[in-house]
Amino acid sequence: MINSYESLVEEIQKASEEGITIEHAERVAGKSLFVMNALSEQLTFLDKDRRMRKRGLKAIKSAVRVEEIKKFDKKPTEGQLEDAVNLNSLVASEEEAYDDAETHSAEADRQFGIAKESHLYFRSISKGTFG
What we know:
The protein is mostly helical.
């Protein structure tokens, strides 16, 4: 998928530097649709992964919090619990994985937007309505 997107970006750059024929614009508009479809499928997967990581992170934080409470005779303060959860290495690792999942999802979303705009751009050229 990355190669298809990168190829589309190269087409955009080439068109901006050298111009483009109507026939080639039709092909690039079609290629943009192909890339949008592939990115849509990828976004579905990435969004599911992000949501699962978010739920997993919440569960891990809860488990760490419960274990921390068990260490005390009296219930610890919220600040103590929050510090224990935030300093836990498993929590930190899962937060990093969740952040990565959000970043990948956002990047794919930006790429989808670029592919959509390129489709509209090249389609308008192929129809002779660009101006």
